Structures are given as structure tokens and as C-alpha cells.
Give the backbone structure.
Amino acid sequence: MIRLIVLLLACVTACSNETVCTARGSLQGVHVNVDKAVAGRAESLAMEVCWDGACQEASTELMPSTVAGNQTCSGEVCSAEAVRTGGKFGFGAITGLPKRPVEVRLTLRGADPEPVLARTIKVTPKATFPNGPDCGEGSPQAVLTIAADGSVREG
């Protein structure tokens, strides 16, 4: 009888499909990726996000974008080198960002007084899932990409 109980407990523990969710969250806001053709002249990003007749502003320094480079492993531990792409990225935190269409005005600034780029785009922020789809919805975010020709697109 004890063997049966131990076997049953082992199966319940091993056979469980329960997802472990952490307390990881996500910020509400707009993430902007800048192509390397434009990024070399840009140092900071300012944005104004508007919906329902109200606007919020955010600004941030642009940081270098990276991709995973050479990977090395020692036993079960692996690491990858971060390789700069020449592009940049920035994130503007926007409180109360809805999951419906908003208007985003972007301004990239460099060393000169004139903006490197000023564009406006309508986007729809989407929910994030920082712990995976089985752990509930996080805060909404929009992702924008500034292409080499200066155009801005969602995604």
C-alpha cells in the first residue's frame, strides 16, 4: 500500500503540467528600433503619445543595438558574445497606454539643433506576456522601427 502511495505521488509530481510563473512584469510604453543608416546621427529620442484627446511625453537616450555573436559552452553553461549591429534602440514609458489605436510623434535628435528625423504614426499597442502566454497578460507596448530611408513602421 505504501508503495502505491509513493508511486502515485511520484506520478502526480512528475506528470504535472503546471506552469511556473514568476513575478516578472513589463512596462507600458513604446520601444523604438533605429536602423544603422539613421542611428549614427541620432543620440536621443523624444516621443509624444496621444489618445482620447490627451498626450504624454517621454524621452530617452538611444542605446546601441546588439545581436548574439559567437557562443561558447563549458559543460552545461553556455554564453554568447553581444555584437553591436550599428543600430540603436530606445524605450519611452507611457502610463495608461491602451490596447487601442494611439498616435505617436517621434523626434530623433543628434548634435545639431535640427532634428535628425520627425515622424508621426498611428499604432495599436499590444499586450505583452513577460512570463509566457500561460502566465497572464502584462502591460501593453508598441514596437516601432525606423528604417534606413527614415520611414517608420509598426513592428
Helices lie at 2-15, 36-39. Residues 24 and 50 are 27 Å apart (CA to CA).
